[in-house]
User: Which sequence fits this backbone?
């Protein structure tokens, strides 16, 4: 048996390296890398071709009644004496909103107050004059009535006397006829016959006097009754004349009161807002004292859009609304669609009617009004439907232009190329 030159332990110790074994890393196969890169490129191309981006314009505005806001204005200069409603109250057409006074001042009492006192004094004098005339005519009527009763009694007495006197005349006539017969027979003298005939003439004369007296009394009674009837008519006539004069006086007082005390009325049924005056303030003619939102009128959003962004806004475009009164972070955004785009730019005064944000946005830039129809008139807040109110301010995003991503990249290049080719 051959003995090795070196011991096995020494050989084993020499065979192991202190750095360890060599490990060779195998790279990722090129095919896998190619497929992954191709998939990534395809995804990017698909996203660029299929993906879409919507261009939006952010503007400010406010909610306005679709039927417009009716204004209650002061017809003339005056001082506010009473405010009959409060903001947000529901009113009826013709309901009094404000009461004004145009009373003029002078030394002492106001001129209007003095005019009212004079008119009242004239009315009192007319009433006193009417009462005095009525009492006088009634006294005259009572006097005539008493005289009429006296004449009625006198006529009754005369009728009785006439009956008796006619009997006396008949008796005297028979006596005279008898004396004539006796005179022919010679039983009485001529003197006795003459006395009998004189007695007959006297009785007939008394009868005629009574008849004349009765005729005169009857005539007086007729006149008294006619005069009494005229007095009754005169009482009615005086009353009618006085009533007419007092009616004219009341009309004059009403006209004066209408000129000095003015009532500002609600132009239609609805909700009153924007009360602009308090009692004691003076207002000029034409001053807007209140606005009335017609009942049943839906709200719409009026947006102020700058001229640089209005070109691509069209009817039917979607709009996202964020109302300041209902933070969208908690209550979400309202939606709507463009109803119309006004083609005439707004004046500076019209621009100032918008919200403060809108005024800051407008600056010196020309603005256009865009009207948006709301999808809903309420917002769900804390489990209840809260209605929107006119005048609420808002921000809006108008979805203006929706194109693919590749179009956003290619279109500017094509436009530049066409412009270069045209030049």
Assistant:
């Amino acid at each position: 048996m051959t003995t090795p030159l070196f011991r096995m332990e020494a050989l084993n110790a020499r065979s192991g390296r202190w750095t360890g074994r060599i490990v060779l890393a195998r790279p990722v196969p090129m095919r896998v890398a190619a497929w992954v890169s191709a998939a990534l490129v395809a995804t990017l191309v698909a996203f660029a071709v299929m993906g879409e981006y919507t261009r939006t314009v952010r503007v400010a505005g406010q909610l306005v009644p679709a039927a417009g806001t009716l204004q209650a204005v002061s017809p003339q200069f005056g001082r506010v004496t009473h405010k009959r409603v409060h903001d947000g109250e529901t009113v009826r057409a013709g309901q009094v909103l404000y009461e004004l006074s145009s009373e003029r001042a002078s030394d002492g009492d106001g001129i209007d107050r003095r005019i009212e006192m004079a008119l009242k004094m004239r009315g009192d004098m007319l009433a006193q004059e009417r009462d005095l005339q009525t009492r006088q005519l009634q006294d005259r009527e009572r006097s005539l009535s008493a005289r009429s009763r006296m004449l009625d009694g006198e006529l009754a007495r005369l009728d009785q006397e006439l009956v008796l006197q006619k009997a006396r005349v008949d008796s005297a006539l028979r006596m005279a006829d008898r004396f004539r017969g006796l005179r022919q027979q010679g039983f009485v003298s001529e003197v006795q016959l003459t006395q009998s005939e004189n007695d007959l003439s006297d009785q007939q004369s008394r009868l005629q006097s009574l008849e004349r007296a009765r005729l005169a009394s009857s005539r007086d009674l007729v006149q008294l009754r006619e005069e009494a009837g005229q007095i009754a008519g005169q009482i009615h006539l005086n009353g009618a004349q006085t009533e007419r004069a007092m009616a004219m006086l009341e009309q004059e007082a009403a006209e004066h009161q209408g000129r000095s005390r003015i009532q500002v009325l609600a132009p239609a049924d609805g909700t009153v807002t924007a009360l602009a005056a308090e009692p004691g303030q003076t207002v000029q003619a034409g001053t807007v004292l209140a606005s009335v939102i017609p009942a049943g009128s839906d709200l719409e959003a009026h947006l102020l859009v700058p001229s640089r962004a209005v070109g691509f806004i069209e009817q039917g475009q979607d709009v996202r609304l964020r109302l300041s009164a209902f933070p969208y972070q908690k209550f979400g955004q309202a939606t709507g669609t463009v109803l119309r785009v006004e083609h005439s730019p707004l004046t500076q005064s019209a621009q100032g009617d918008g919200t403060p944000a809108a005024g800051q946005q407008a600056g010196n830039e020309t603005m256009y009004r865009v009207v948006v129809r709301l999808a809903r008139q309420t917002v769900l807040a804390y489990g209840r439907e809260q209605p929107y109110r006119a005048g609420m301010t808002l921000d809006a995003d108008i979805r203006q232009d929706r194109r693919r991503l590749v179009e956003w990249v290619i279109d500017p290049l094509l436009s530049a190329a066409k412009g270069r080719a045209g030049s």
